[in-house]
Structure formats: structure tokens, C-alpha cells
Specification:
The structure is a single chain. The chain is an alpha+beta fold. It has two domains: 128 residues, Penicillin-binding protein 2a (Domain 2), CATH 3.90.1310; 356 residues, DD-peptidase/beta-lactamase superfamily (Beta-lactamase). Helix content is 35%, strand content 20%. The strands form seven sheets. Strands 1, 2, 3, 4 and 7 form a five-stranded mixed β-sheet that branches. A five-stranded antiparallel β-sheet has the order 9-8-16-15-14, sandwiched between helices. It has a two-stranded antiparallel sheet with strand order 5-6. Strand 17 and strand 18 form a beta hairpin. The radius of gyration is 40 Å and the shape is elongated. The termini are far apart. 41% of the residues are buried.
Length: 596
């Protein structure tokens, strides 16, 4: 039973009257007591509600914190959409050179698409788009905008000026969506190495970037992995050296009237490619379409340095000399029969000029005697020649990180007969890429270790298990190559203070009928520097060079490829940190260079 406080306390009132007190004071006192009780009850209710709210907020914060902790401890995964539409991953890692310079990156841009069903003025939209994009066809746009299609792609990428021009048209059916564009800030400088990308799966909010050639295709999976967004692909090339070499080759190609030019610069002791140029080239920001007719090798997309195989002429003579010295058959001073011509059945081997009846092995290389080197190769036999060339990687597919090099298998004689042994000794009848040649020359000058050419910067140098010739044979080969520049066919290749050595090669160019052109050659200079401590190997080749000097057309490598290679070395040596020692005479003696 509820007990309530009476509104008028009669007993107290009667008692107050009996003693002469005012009863109204008693009632006022009772009202004040009831008010205090009511306020105390309301305060307790408010305190209970506030406490409950504090508890609820506290539990909420604990739940959120626990969830954040659980998420932080989980392995990162790519978020997936709840709908059935495919997820488009538009992230792509950067590509940088050995020094961290950007070679390929992403740029925020926009795409243009149309929704014809919401267009206010299709005819006006067509006229406006034709003004902005002259390559679009008005008739085709009219059919698209007035047909039954509800969605039309118009442009995969827009410049800021084009975006503003489209917005100024005021057409609600023309819509712009954000996306990323692959940007190559250096243009054509490393086009054949980088390759290029295209758009894969596309949506109105994003588009997939997919590699189509070069390292963009070779490492497509790595570059597209979101986990590698902050880990760029680092290549072994040096952008400044690549730029200088391309400019020198381009100038040389024009000066020599050549159809094409190619160059490879490689670290002699590791096989890392610092620069690789193939001209003509292209801008990967605007990659052209592959040719549908004609010779694919005539396309600027064709990588002549790592994809094209060529007979590289007398550059092969040093391999025969090294094989003989390694086998103990000859020394640099061994005298060889150089009496020309060398007749094998109905085949005659001649020299560029008459060098007399006998030459030392050193002078066979210096003067580039086909007859002398062929007789040396004939004495060692075809199997020994094949084994030695195979040990240098000259009979295998090019092991380079480019998809285009997968088909770069050397072209070898169908039947390795005795005549094949003779011609291969001076670089005819066997075709390899310039990168093949650069790697083989590295083994000749680096102390005898075979290197694997690579475009990656984090590869390991060769070990003793990769030895193909002894250090003494390598030292003798280096001396021969140095003498070729000092007093032989590459005398125009000397760069003061950098002690260049190398071997020229002028190979007749095959024609489609299986014979050789009479007036077309491929001139090559395979070189290394500085020869006292070889750091770099450089191969320069010109396709169909010809220069007129003193009223006579000159096509040999000594007049064409050698001067171009000299200009390349003159430009890139300081960029590589090599300081010339100008206190030494340019002779066959060793020149000691200091390294930075």
C-alpha cells in the first residue's frame, strides 16, 4: 500500500494553533519538503540515464577499436565488389632507372563517353565533337547517337584543354570519367626497353593498364600488383647515358646515311645493360600500331639491338683467336699463313688487301685477315669451334628480360661443314643480336667470365663457375683489341685518355633471295674501355651505312661505325664517372685510369 504525505498536516496545524503559531508556515514548510523530494527523484532518474548513455558510448568505442585492431592485424587484400561486375585494378607501379629517375609513371586524366538516350541535341554534340577532335567521323557519330545504343566510348584519354572544351558544349549526354594514363616522361629515349601499355578492362570510373611490349609486358604481373605500388621496378639502365647515346647514334646514322642504327652499352663484369638504343624508334606515349604488311624489321617497333639477328662480320675473329690461345694452339706471336686467297673446293676466301704470306696472330686481328683466321679455325675443327661459341652464349636464345628477345635465337649453319667453320671464324654464316655480341665481348675482356645480359639492377656478378677462358687468355685478347685501335682497322676509334680497344666488322648484307647485296653492308664496332681495367663494353652497328670521302664511297666499319662509337664514348665516359688520364700517350701501353 502506497503511503503519501498529506497535503495538509492537520496534527501539526492543530498543534501549532494550540501554541499560538501561524498554521500557514507549517503548510509552506510541508510544500518545500515535498518539492525537495520530487527534485531529488528527478535528479536520480537523470543520473541513471546519463550513466546508461556513458556506458553505451563506452561500449561503442570499445567495439570500434576492437574492429580496427582486427583489421590492422589481418593481411591486406584487394577489396572486392559485392556485385558480379569484374573488379578493375588501375594501379601500376613506376619504372625507374638505376639512379631512381622516373622512366614510366601514372598520370591522372579523364575519358569521354556518351549516353545517347539523355542527349539534348545529338546533332549539336556531333558538330562540337568534330571541332574538338578532328579525327572523329561525323557520319559514324550520328549513327551512334541516333541508334539504339545506350553507351558509347568516344575517347580513352583527354587533355585538360579537351576536357574544358567538351564541358563548354553543355551537352548532358557527353560525360567525363576519371582514369589513370601511363606516362613516359622521357619520350623515345628508352622506347624499346619500356615497350608500352594499353587499356584493358574499362569502366566509367577506371581502366586497367596492361603491358603490351618491353619490360611493361615482361613484368606486367609485378607492376599491376597493388602491393608493389610503392616499390618501383628498378632497371639497370642510366637515363642520362641512354639519352647521350641515342643522340650520338641518331647523328651518326644521319651523317653516315644509314638505314638504321643500334647500340648496346654493358658493364663488362656483371652483364648489366646501361644503355640500349635501336633506331628508328618511337614515342611510347603514342605507340604506333604493328605493321600488317612489309618487313617487320622495317617498323620502328622492331628492337634491332635485342630482337634482330645479323651477321656481324670480323668482330667474331677475336673469338677464334681466344679459342686458339685457350687451347694452347697459338700465342699472340704465333705466325700464321695469310697467303691469299684461301681456296676450299670452289670457294675462295680473300682479304681486303694483300697482307703478305705470314702474319702473327696479333696482326691477323689488327689487320683483320680473313685468310689467316680461317686457316687457324680450320686447324682446330668444327666441333671445337661450336663448343667454344656455345660457351659464350652465341648459339643460344638471348636470355634478356624482354618478350621480344624470346625469338632471338642465333641463325646457324644448317649443316656445320668445314666451309662453315671457315666462314664463321670471320663472322659470316652465323647471325646473332648485338646484345649477344656485347655479352661475348664482356667475357673476352673481364678476365674470362661469361656474363648474362640483364636489364635489372639487382643481379649478381658471375662466379668462377662461369669461366670460359683463363685470365691470361683474356689479357692477351685485350692487348689485341687495344692494338686494333692503336694501329689497326679501328684507328679512328681512339678517345684521348680512355684507352679504347675493339674490333671492326663489315658484313655483306643478305638479300631476300639468299645471296648478298653487292653494295649494302652492316658495319659494326665491338669495343671496350678502358682496356687497362675494362669496365664497359660498347657495340655499335649501322645498317647500310655509306659516306663519301675524297670522292669515294666508304662503307667499311672503320669509316662508319668506328667514328660513331668514338663519339658515343666521348659523350658517355664522363657520365659514367670515368676521368681521363691525359698524361699518357695513346699507344699500346697500359693506361691507368682512376675511378670516381
Amino acid at each position: 500500500m502506497q503511503i503519501r504525505r498529506p497535503l495538509r498536516p492537520l496534527l501539526r496545524i492543530l498543534k501549532a494553533r494550540s501554541v499560538g503559531l501561524d498554521p500557514a508556515l507549517v503548510e509552506a514548510e510541508e510544500r518545500a519538503a515535498r518539492l525537495r523530494q520530487q527534485r531529488a527523484a528527478e535528479k536520480r532518474r537523470a543520473e541513471r540515464r546519463i550513466g546508461l548513455m556513458i556506458a553505451l558510448f563506452g561500449l561503442s568505442f570499445v567495439a570500434v577499436g576492437a574492429k580496427m585492431g582486427m583489421v590492422a592485424m589481418q593481411e591486406p587484400v584487394e577489396p572486392r565488389s559485392a556485385v558480379h561486375a569484374p573488379v578493375i585494378i588501375n594501379q601500376r607501379a613506376n619504372i625507374v632507372d638505376r639512379n631512381g629517375a622516373i622512366l614510366a609513371t601514372n598520370l591522372a586524366t579523364a575519358s569521354l563517353y556518351a549516353r545517347p538516350q539523355i542527349m539534348a541535341d545529338p546533332a549539336g554534340a556531333v558538330a562540337g565533337l568534330i571541332r574538338i577532335f578532328p579525327d572523329l567521323e561525323a557520319e559514324k557519330l550520328e549513327k551512334l547517337f541516333t541508334g539504339r545504343r545506350t553507351f558509347v566510348w568516344l575517347k580513352p584519354k583527354l587533355s585538360p584543354e579537351q576536357q574544358q572544351a567538351v564541358l563548354d558544349l553543355g551537352e548532358p549526354g557527353l560525360l567525363i570519367g576519371p582514369r589513370e594514363l601511363r606516362l613516359y616522361p622521357n619520350g623515345a629515349f628508352a622506347a624499346h626497353i619500356l615497350g608500352g601499355t594499353r587499356f584493358g578492362d574499362q569502366g566509367v570510373r577506371s581502366a586497367e593498364l596492361v603491358g603490351v611490349a618491353g619490360v611493361e609486358l615482361q613484368f606486367d604481373e609485378y607492376l599491376r600488383d597493388p602491393a608493389n605500388a610503392e616499390n618501383p621496378l628498378r632497371l639497370s639502365i642510366d637515363l642520362t647515358v641512354q639519352s647521350a647515346m641515342r643522340q650520338a647514334l641518331e647523328g651518326g646514322m644521319q651523317l653516315m646515311g644509314a638505314k638504321a642504327a643500334m647500340g648496346v652499352l654493358m658493364e663488362a663484369d656483371t652483364g648489366r645493360i646501361i644503355s640500349m638504343v635501336s633506331l628508328p624508334d618511337f614515342d611510347p606515349n603514342h605507340r604506333p600500331n604493328p605493321p600488317v604488311s612489309g618487313d617487320p624489321a622495317d617498323s620502328p617497333l622492331f628492337n634491332r639491338a635485342a630482337q634482330g639477328t645479323y651477321e656481324l662480320g670480323s668482330t667474331f675473329k677475336i673469338f677464334t683467336a681466344a679459342q686458339a690461345m685457350e687451347a694452347g694452339v697459338a700465342t699472340p706471336d704465333t705466325m700464321l699463313n695469310s697467303q691469299a686467297p684461301l681456296i676450299w673446293r670452289n670457294f675462295k676466301i680473300r682479304d681486303f688487301r694483300d697482307y703478305g704470306p705470314r702474319l702473327s696472330l696479333r696482326d691477323v686481328i689488327v689487320k683483320s685477315s680473313n685468310v689467316g683466321i680461317a686457316r687457324l679455325a680450320m686447324g682446330m675443327g668444327d666441333q671445337a669451334q661450336q663448343d667454344f661459341l656455345r660457351s659464350l652464349g652465341l648459339m643460344e636464345r638471348l636470355p634478356l628480360e624482354l618478350p621480344e628477345s624470346r625469338l632471338s635465337t642465333p641463325i646457324l649453319p644448317r649443316r656445320w661443314s668445314e666451309i662453315s667453320t671457315l666462314t664463321v671464324s670471320y663472322g659470316q654464316g652465323i647471325a646473332v643480336t648485338p646484345v649477344h655480341l656485347a655479352a661475348a665481348y664482356a667475357a673476352m675482356v673481364n678476365g674470362g667470365l661469361r656474363v648474362r645480359p640483364t636489364l635489372l639492377n639487382d643481379t649478381l656478378p658471375p662466379t668462377e663457375a662461369d669461366r670460359v677462358i683463363s685470365e691470361s687468355t683474356s689479357l692477351a685478347a685485350r692487348d689485341m683489341l687495344r692494338q686494333v685501335v692503336v694501329r689497326g682497322t679501328a684507328s679512328m676509334g681512339e678517345v684521348e685518355g680512355y684507352e679504347v680497344g675493339g674490333k671492326t666488322g663489315t658484313a655483306d648484307k643478305p638479300n631476300p633471295q639468299g645471296a648478298y647485296y653487292e653494295d649494302k653492308v652492316i658495319g659494326t664496332f665491338a669495343s671496350a674501355f678502358p682496356m687497362s681495367d675494362p669496365r664497359y663494353v660498347l657495340v655499335v652497328s649501322l645498317d647500310e651505312p655509306e659516306i663519301e670521302i675524297a670522292g669515294e664511297a666508304r662503307r667499311t666499319a672503320g669509316w662508319t661505325a668506328v667514328p660513331v662509337a668514338r663519339e658515343v664514348i666521348r659523350r658517355i665516359a664522363p657520365l659514367l664517372g670515368l676521368r681521363p688520364n691525359r698524361n699518357n700517350e695513346t699507344s699500346g701501353t697500359s693506361i691507368v685510369l682512376t675511378r670516381n
